[in-house]
Amino acid sequence: MFVDKAEIILVAGSGGHGGVSFRREKYVPMGGPDGGHGGHGGSIILMADNGLRTLVEFKYKRKHKAENGENGTSGQSSGKSGEDLIIKVPVGTLVKDKETGRVICDLSENGQKYQIVDGGRGGRGNMNFATATRQTPRFAQGGVRGQERTIILELKLLADVGLIGFPNVGKSTLLSVITKAKPKIANYHFTTIIPNLGVVEWRNFDPFVIADIPGLIEGAHEGTGLGDQFLRHVERTKLLIHLLDASGSEGREPLDDFKKINYELEKYNAKLAQRVQIVALNKVDLISDQSELYTLKGELETLGYEVFIISAVTGQGLNELLSRTIQLLDEIGEVEPIFDFEPEEETIYTPEFKEKQFTVKKVDNSFVVEGEFFERLINSVNFEDLDSIGFFQRVLKDKGVFEELEKMNIKDDDTVRIDEIEFEYYK
Fold first, then answer.
1. Annotated binding residues for GTP, as ranges?
2. Positions of CATH 3.40.50.300 in the chain
3. What is the DSSP string of 382-420?
4. Would you list which residues are annotated within the binding site?
């Protein structure tokens, strides 16, 4: 099954909690705190692999999660960090953020990696909270939750040449003749329902990759005939070979077909329509009177296109077509991507900027405080220990929570709810 688009959910591992522990040795009756740090959560990394050809595995597994970090333990022992999760995708995969639609990265080279979500930082153990006045802290810092993100994977085939044209003009036949590809060939519409790739090794020239793009008919850019699903596969090509049925065996006018396909390219992406394009008039072996053929050739040349007369069945004109293709590829060189994006900057996950963000709202007779950092804070607190509760109150004060509550006219004995914790407010 050929799948070239997938939506997946990525969840990085959460950091382990810091440990709460005290030295308990035979000759050290008043041992100090020795709880170790929590391990970092595992990140998720995307990696391009040229051994893959489709995104089909993501059709059946949509959620991917990295390992959590382990909690810190006694003896100042840090918890083990979670293993990073490496997800392999085909070379040529474009990665987009579902929420914003922004392109995150373009994995166009074998082995290329991108860290897409970062694991959460591990919490500090209670040995880090000992002071001259608080020598036995019975609390530690909670781990940070790993990042979560929903992304869209789009596979865009890496081909030098895109073979375009209406169905049944001979694209699959031509591909099978000039490459070792074995596409399905028959005399009915939509024979090709997946893009086919082949490598052309012509004489002593460097080989090039050619793709047969299916589904291009009138209305393709709007989804007719699955055209919008396959047009993305010509976005990376340097050169387009536009194949026309010069014999009119399907009852269509070749020049009319040519204009319709180019209209679809223009509507799909204006930059794509500007790619270098040459025309191949195919099925000339079926034409007895070739005067009209040369009239068609002249009309296309008047429009500014190079035109080649070929027969994919007999091999007529293939030498000239392929020789010119190789020459043009050399002249064109590298081309700019069709899609515009500025790659995200890969950074180490730092949650502090989120920890300053919270909201306070009144629900019935309670004040509800919400913010991402509260989960970590609550995991850090031992509500049966006065020192730990004091730490909790200081953090709320430092973050401005109490100040915000007072702006909302909170009174003594009013209820405050943070995550799953409820308490009565006293100034």
1. 165-172, 190-194, 212-215, 282-285, 311-313
2. 161-332
3. -TT-HHHHHHHHHHHHHTTHHHHHHHTT--TT-EEEETT
4. 165-172, 190-194, 212-215, 282-285, 311-313
SS3 state of residue 285: helix
Residue type for 33, please?
P
Helix residue ranges per DSSP H, 132-253 = 171-178, 227-230
DSSP 133: S
Which pLDDT score is estimated for 218? 53
Q: How many CB atoms neighbour CB 371 within 10 A?
A: 18
Average pLDDT, consecutive stretches of 10 residues, N- to C-terminus, the chain (427 residues): 78 90 71 87 94 84 94 89 95 89 88 93 85 78 88 84 87 86 46 67 84 62 47 78 88 88 83 89 88 91 95 93 94 76 48 58 85 75 72 83 87 85 81
Which CATH superfamily, name and number, covers 5-155? GTP1/OBG domain (2.70.210.12)
Assign a CATH topology to domain 352-424: GMP Synthetase; Chain A, domain 3 (3.30.300)
161-332 CATH: 3.40.50.300
In this structure, what token pair is assigned to residue 54? Answer: 């489709």
Question: Taking a C-beta distance cutoff of 8 angstroms, is the pair 328, 237 a contact?
Answer: no
pLDDT of residue 340: 55
**Token pair listed for 235:** 């976005």
Q: Give the three-class secondary structure for 111.
A: coil
Binding-site residue numbers for Mg(2+) are: 172, 192
